[in-house]
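A quick word before the example. In earlier lectures we treated sequence and structure as two separate objects. From today on, think of them as two lines of the same record. Here is Prevent-host-death protein written that way.
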Amino acid sequence: TYMKKINKESCEIAVTGENVEDTIVVMSKRDYDAMQETLSVLSNKYVIDKINRGDNQFNSYKGGFGNENDY
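And the structure line, produced from the sequence above:
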């Protein structure tokens, strides 16, 4: 069934109506929850700033900890 495929393969299905604006997308609850969590993180300036600071800190140390391919 479509529901099993969507859950197993983590895919979406577009269900179209007569008009393009009537189209809906069906996805698994797990994927929907993950998408909502991602949107929540991306919309939180404090969290994004912390991620960027950590990323910058990691990149500044990259040359001092061995081969770049180790990361």
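Notice the following. The mean pLDDT is 89. We will return to this example when we discuss secondary structure assignment.
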